[in-house]
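Just wondering, does anyone understand these tokens?
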Amino acid sequence: MAVSGRAVARILGFVATVLTSGSAEVFSKVPLIELQRLSNAMQTTDSSGNITATATFNTHDITLVAKNHENATVTLFLSGELEECVNFTFTYDPNDPTIKPLDNFTLCPHDGGSDGEAPSRNPLPMNLTLEVASRRVGKTVVGLKADPAVVDVTDAYVRVSVIHDPILNVISDVFGWTYSIIWDISFLPQVWLNWNRKSVVGFSLDNVTLNILAYLCYSLFNVAFFAVPYIQNQFHARYPRQVNHVRPNDVFFATYALFIEIVLGIQCLIYYREPGQVVSKTCWVLVAGSLLSIVVACVLAAENIIWWLDVFYLMSYLKLGITPLKYIPQLYVNYRHRSTAGFSMVGLLMDFTGGVLSLAQMFMLSGNNDDWVSVFNNFSKFGLGVITILFDLMFFLQHYYFHLRKPSLLL
């Protein structure tokens, strides 16, 4: 039996989605909005009428403080026409919500016609004010169901976050900016060392090449998650109850790091290199393979086979995969020279401190929302912190324990 190209593409798209989702849980990760649309379509099919009205909330995100027993007011906008009574029921994900349940309600057309005639008046448009009250820390997605399904409720949902304390969010932001600044500064000692010596001997060219690719991917990932509503909406649709961990400091760090790595790359081109100090063929194969995988993912997303969200997740995983590979060549260069000369240990210490603060920010943000699962939905950020710490410890061992310290290299 012949298999069409479209079918093959869909199979590849599904496999890519599984890989970029991190596990086979993709089977159960059907987006909330898509479920709502499917539900509406099924209800409309069973209903005697068609969609005649729409419902939406004035906001999709609310944050409440649990210890203050905070309340918030939201407005439900109803527009269109009702030709029969409609029962509106609020739904909650999870079924045990972190807020007090809202009262369901029914709307009917006003009686205005003669006996046997259809009602002549319509109660819409209508704005209903609802009070959302916190019960405990956590996240709840409030939705709306209409019976019969003559009202489009696709856009009628609110994500409610109930947190322990807003101060913890402030502290996590301080940690975030601190680690971003430290990580950004950590690049400068290497730039200064190369400039001062007018040489890149002892510095791995594979390291800088892979870093340019890694931070290009990481910059695109962070910018998309922080500043592109289309990608943010896809994230919230797939993970409606979980935290988007990308913060302004992540965007700042990634874009700045990309700039500095390009500067280091230019230094590698113009400063003295020892004979045979070139980018390895293995490194070029890794770069080509990574770029090819991104191109394939973009084609699949353009064909609506996978989400664009998955394309940016792929970029973040490439950054995560490249991170240990970029450290290994530098470990080998240190070992081959029996020296860490040419590799800045001051920058390494800053790199280690930034990794610790990066993880601290994630855990503090997750703890404030009682949402530990979300740490692994931004696995690139979590993995980046862990891998950075582990490899920095190896460099510390080379420098301080194995005493691979020499005042200079013979040029």
Remarks:
- The longest helix spans residues 308-337.
- The beta strands are 53-57, 61-65, 71-80, 86-93, 105-107, 126-133, 138-147, 151-152, 157-163.
- The chain has eleven helices and nine strands.
- The radius of gyration is 27 Å.
